[in-house]
Amino acid sequence: MQPSNRLPYWYYVWPSAVYALLTLLCADNSFFWDNIMQASKAGQWYYNTNLSTLILPTELDAGHPPLFGLYLAAVWKLMGQSLAVSHWAIFPLLLGIGWQATRLAALVSPDRKWVVLITAFLLADTALLAQASQVSPDLALTFFALWAVANILTHSRREWLAISLLGLVMVSTRGILLGFGIGLAELIILVFIEKAPNTQTLLKRLGAYIPAILLVLAWLWWHYHQTGWVGYNPASQWSANYERVGVAGFFRNIIIMKARLLELGRVATWLVMTLAAVVWWRKRVLLPLISLKIFAFLVGIMVVLAIFMLPYANPIGHRYLILPALMASLLAMQLLLFLWEDGTQRRWIYRGALLVLLSGHLWIYPAGVAMGWDSTLAHIPYFGYRKQAVAHLKAYQIPAGTVGSDFPNLASFWDTDLMQEPYFFKEKNLKKDDFVLESNIMNGFSDEELADLRQHWQVRREWGGWPVYMRLYERKPH
Hints:
Keywords: Membrane, Transmembrane, Transmembrane helix. This protein is mainly alpha-helical. It has helices spanning about 10-25, 35-50, 65-80, 85-110, 110-125, 125-130, 135-155, 160-170, 175-195, 200-205, 210-225, 245-260, 265-285, 290-310, 320-340, 345-360, 380-395, 415, 445-455, and strands at about 405, 425, 435-440, 455-465, 470-475. Strand 1 (about 405), helix 18 and strand 2 (about 425) form a beta-alpha-beta unit.
């Protein structure tokens, strides 16, 4: 597969240096947020069973295809189980993301000088950059999805598209949805933009999706044969996430989904798009086909995600929308290059947009307002403060099992740190606990519980401050 537009190879290599530095700095960070379940626990099950089964036990099974967990377990088998090995196992996916982002940037930029700038804007997406610091299956999703989109837009051999789709649908249930979204987008492109001449041509182009469809059907059949259910586990701890929300909840989810595309600096993309719309309205120029095709991907992916997300109570995270956010950013950058002839104006708009996007890592909400901490680099100090808190508890011989806390600090240290010791915190109960370990990372503390801690407990020890703090509370003596 040759680089598009015959770019020098360093255009494709520089993101790897950035990702290598990020991986090196974060290689000792624990499994975090949903990755504790989806990466660590799932990977360990496959590791401990010697990759001999595809189906997870009931308490771990969310219905996801097994590719990521199997991959992590295989790497552990080859290189040993450690946090560093886990993080570096993700590095090839990061290389792939950088490669595909550069391919897409080269596609929309006739000016080589802007290829690096556009690539940097894509990779600076707050949620993507934060996930890149973690052991996250969303990085596999992003790589395979970007590869599929780039294959379609660059008219690569359809075999490459088929392979990218096979990987995408086997990472998770959301990967299957993204595959459908990409397929819908290409259908829109073929029918309304390229205007495929006949049904035979249309079916031939869409034939690359057949292997992925057959693999998904085989997985769903096998999972149903083994467990009696597909889609979601009615006996799992997260089954409430799949309850229907009604009309009011549906519109509330629309607002949340829109907010996730604006929060944490992502508003930068939409500000550029708004400016572009004003300029286009004044010029009334015909947009190039590439603009329409990227827009088709944005629409197709969002339509599928909306259909399967909006009717349910499942929280909509920022990382769920990485791919549509990247499509929106790519479109914004393409319109910036196409509609602004003045190079100085173009550069200032880009600089302002990039600064706003990067500022997303500084968007820290006040106490009581839930944040998507797994989608901002602001969460990173949490790991160091957690280690200091554990060291304090051990020094004063306070068993962690007597200290109340909340997600993501409830899993055992084997699941978060791959440590061979039975160490874990208990779920908080402010009526019975004598010690509580609280942090603004933990969205599970209600306003009433936070007020109770401030008024009726004393801070035994505090670590950090802004953007992350961790406090060990001790009940005040009566």
